Amino acid sequence: MSFIVAIDGPAAAGKGTVSKAVAEHFGFAHLDTGLLYRVVGRAALASIGPSLDPERVIALSTDVNPEDLHRTDLRTAAVAQAASKVAAIPEVRANLVAFQREFANRSGGAVLDGRDIGTVICPDADVKLFVTASTERRAERRYKELAERGEETSYEGVLADVIARDKRDSERESAPLVASEDAHLLDTSEMTIAEAVAEAIAIIDAKR
Ligand code: CDP
Question: Counting C-beta atoms within 10 Å of the first and last residue's C-beta, which end of the chain has fewer, N or C?
């Protein structure tokens, strides 16, 4: 039987960490849907360049190989920005829908995290969470993560990136970042990872 957990929220809110822990706890499969857009964004930067010509980006998005999600060069700030740009192209989003829905409907349960899972990809999800945190908290966390990975960056630069990406993701016409009306809001600004995970698990347990 399928059981779908949809986890959405803005950049660096902790969706990934919460999703991974929740999936592990319940034995569900996990798909970080941001990686799909990062794969297209990275390929577009490499083969098209910064112009990100939409026709060519759309062509690239027909050809995403699940193996690509394991690439180790998808988490950079440059790829994040490119992902958010290609994600605003409706045809790119459309080309990625089938893969996500198929993943979600597997038997045994699935957790998908992204921006539009509860609103567009899986509007009938069994549980919807909208994970958020203050912009400064999110920028601090992402800065730490990038610095630990050795990327040369500054807090101010990361903050500007997060703000630009949130703006683009929220204002686009196609599947904008917005909390589904029936989503549980989880503000992790003042929470530890363990607290956020425990709360998410409690919300899901109540629906099972
Ligand atoms: O990890 P972080 O929250 O920084 O970003 P991500 O989830 O990897 O997503 C990268 C970009 O992909 C976002 O800024 C969105 O523009 C886009 N995205 C989307 O449009 N829809 C999704 N379901 C997931 C990501």
Answer: N
